[in-house]
Amino acid sequence: MARITRCSNRLWISLAVVLGFALGASAQVSPDLFSGLRWRNVGPYHGGRIASVTGVIGEPGTFYVGLPQGGIWKTTSGGMTWYPVFDQVTEVDSIGAIQVAPSNANIIYAGSGDAVSNFATGSNGNGMYKSTDAGKTWTHIGLEG
């Protein structure tokens, strides 16, 4: 008899916990809870849609993003601040692919052009670019077509 009572008690406790969660989930959150929050742009500033992103092995806060109409941007602060690293390349501003070489964090490959924005802006790109100094300078390496 004690065993049945123990199981019965466990069943009621389980039901009470489930019911408590269900009632708690439907509770309304006061708008005052979010009143101190303010929207802010953390970058990239004039980028729009992001076509590609890559991180750097061994550098947790370092990322690069390729933008269809904004070049390449870099952060070393985990996204708190961004700065452009492709502005010296004036032949193209559309980036559709980007990748840091796993063997060397200073080597970055970028594919110019973007198939989606091509319809709106006509940005086919002009091939591949490579940086060997973590994005400070870029060299056109081919694949024009």
Which helices and strands occur, and which strands form pairs?
Blueprint: H1 2-25, E1 52-56, E2 59-67, E3 71-75, E4 83-84, E5 95-100, E6 108-112, H2 115-121, E7 128-131, E8 139-142
Antiparallel strand pairs: 1-2, 2-3, 3-4, 5-6, 6-7, 7-8
Question: Would you give an account of this structure?
Answer:
With 145 residues, the protein is an alpha+beta fold. It has two helices and eight strands. A four-stranded antiparallel sheet has the order 1-2-3-4, with no helix packed on it. It is elongated.
Short description:
With 145 residues, this protein is α+β, with helices and mostly antiparallel strands. The chain contains two helices and eight strands; from the N terminus they run αββββββαββ.
Name its key features.
145 residues; alpha+beta; 4-stranded antiparallel beta sheet; 8 strands; 28% strand
